[in-house]
Amino acid sequence: MKKSIIFTVLCASILFSQEGKKEKVSFAKEVLPILTKKCLGCHNTDDGSPSLLYFDDYKEMMSGSSKHGPVIIPKKGEESTLIKKLRGTADFGKQMPRGKKPLDEETISIICRWIDQGAKNN
Ligand code: HEC
């Protein structure tokens, strides 16, 4: 009897601690404003973006038509070229945003979490 109570409490606390990490990231409210502010100056359809990567349109961004193929692999944040480019660990070109201060880890992790959650247009 006692054991099962302890087990239940243990399970509940594990569930709770996992819950905090899984808070849903919104593309429109959290990710897009970062991309608009830090990346759109170069990666936009009007000016002809370098590497054919455009951040002014979700569909276009997800289409995988940029020079090195898809930059976002849904559910695989750390493996996505976009995150590697922000960390400076991609095996081509420069760290993004190019020629500017790198994004802080907290900002990168918001984008990474959004990709891990499926990179939805939410
Ligand atoms: C000052 C202009 C500039 C800004 C700002 C900029 N980029 Fe770039 N981006 C480039 C250029 C030029 C390239 C091509 C050369 C390279 O890969 O370094 C590129 C390439 C990329 C690629 C590789 C695409 C491919 O398939 O080859 C990714 C991913 C990327 N940028 C993401 C971003 C993100 C995310 C931001 C915002 C945090 C950003 N960039 C901001 C100029 C910029």
What can you see in these coordinates?
46% of the residues lie in helices and 0% in strands. The protein has five helices and no strands. The protein has helices spanning 2-21, 27-38, 58-62, 81-87, 105-116. The chain starts with a helix and ends in a 6-residue tail after the last helix. The model has no long low-confidence stretch (mean pLDDT 89). The structure holds heme C. The site of heme C (HEC) has 25 residues, from helix 4.
Helix and strand arrangement:
Blueprint: H1 2-21, H2 27-38, H3 58-62, H4 81-87, H5 105-116
Helix pairs in contact: 2-5
The structure holds heme C.
Heme C binds at residues 38-39, 41-43, 50-51, 53, 66-68, 71, 81-82, 85-86, 92-94, 96-100, 103.
List keywords for this structure.
122 residues
| Oligomeric nature of the chains | single chain
- Major β-sheet profile: none
Overall number of domains: 1
**What would you report as the Rg, rounded to the nearest angstrom?**
18 Å
Give the distance, in angstroms, between the N- and C-terminal Cα atoms: 45 Å
List cofactors, ions and other ligands.
heme C
Based on secondary structure, the structural category is mainly alpha
Helix-strand sequence: HHHHH
Percent in helix: 40-55%
Average pLDDT score: 89
List the uncertain runs: none
User: Count the helices. How many?
Assistant: 5
Topology, number of strands: 0
Question: Beta fraction of the residues?
Answer: under 5%
Shape summary: elongated
